[in-house]
Every structure is written in structure tokens, then in C-alpha cells.
Amino acid sequence: MPAVVQYAGRLSEGEPERDLLYRYSTAIGATVIYAFMLFLVLLIAGFDRDVLALRRPRSWPRTLALSAGLFVAMFVAIALLEQVLHGGQEQGLTPDGWQPEHAGAYVANFVVIALVAPIVEELTFRGLGYSLLEPYGRWLAIVVIGLVFSAQHGLVQGFAELALFGVGLAWLRARTRSVYPCIVLHSVFNGIALIAAVAT
Questions:
Q1: With 50 as the cut, is the pLDDT of residue 35 above it?
Q2: Strands (E), 8-150
Q3: What's the DSSP call for residue 71?
Q4: Considering only CA atoms, which of 114, 139, 135 is closest in space to residue 197?
């Protein structure tokens, strides 16, 4: 249902305003939504850490190697797709340039997008979602979670990029049996995107 709302909003309202991340209200609104989403996920999971994959990876050195390889592969693949699909432009959240007078609001939104969002989204999709689908097959869970993760963002041009990202993170979750590496990788990707948006 949230995906339908996202797509409907996109069709009726078009792209969001380019200065949304320079507003405190954006960070506050997103935090409220993520808090509610997290509560529902925890409730559905029965507050079970195992269902949410909140456990140490099997091997930290192996996890670091897998994460580094996946990061490079996804970064290159998404950069190539962006040249054709322009999914980042479609999302329209990143501002056109740096506005130092709104630095506080940008930092608040940075914290939400690079920390809060990855935690909640990873617990939702690679935690609870993957655990619910894994009994039907590992690759089914990986692909479906990637597609659902992408669909909930409500983008058309950016669908393939987000699906690839979602599938990659689900694969990492399957290989490490932990959601922690997914949270870190998701956070790094979002952080890089936000820094690059105002650094150019």
C-alpha cells in the first residue's frame, strides 16, 4: 500500500521541491514516519532479534570483504544506470547546491537519511521481510525483497537502480546472516549521495 501512495503522490504532485532537505520540518516528518514504521516492524517481528537478523555476522573478515566487493560493484553499476535512467534526478530530494544558512536543517536531514532511514529500512526489508520469505527459497527472498524495497520508493526511472541496490543488500544479508552489514552499507551509500549533492 505505501508504494501505491508513493506512486500516486508522484503522479499528482510531480517532483518534490529541491530545498526539502534545507527544512527542519522534513527531518521531523520523516523521523515520525520512520518511528511508526519501526514500531510496526518490531511488533510484527514479535521483538525477536533473530527474525530481524540482529546478530553478529558469521565472520567479520569475510563480511568486510563481501561488503567492500558489493559496494564497488553496486557503485559502478548504479553509476552506469544513472547515466541512462537518471533515477537520482527523478527522486529530486537533493538540492542543487550548498546553502550554508540552512546547514543545521541539512545536518538534521542528513542524520535521518544516512542513519535513521538505513536502520529502519534494513530492519524492515532485509530483517523482517527476508526472514518471512526465506523459507520459500533464498533467491526468491533476495529478488522479491529487492523489488519491494525499490517499489516502496515510488520511482519509475529510479526503479532499476533501487532494485539493484535492494537485491545487493538482500544478497549480503543472505551471505552474512546479519542485517548489520546491510545497515552500514546502506548508510554509507546514502551519506555519499548527500555529501556529493552539495559538494559539486
A1: yes
A2: none
A3: H
A4: 114
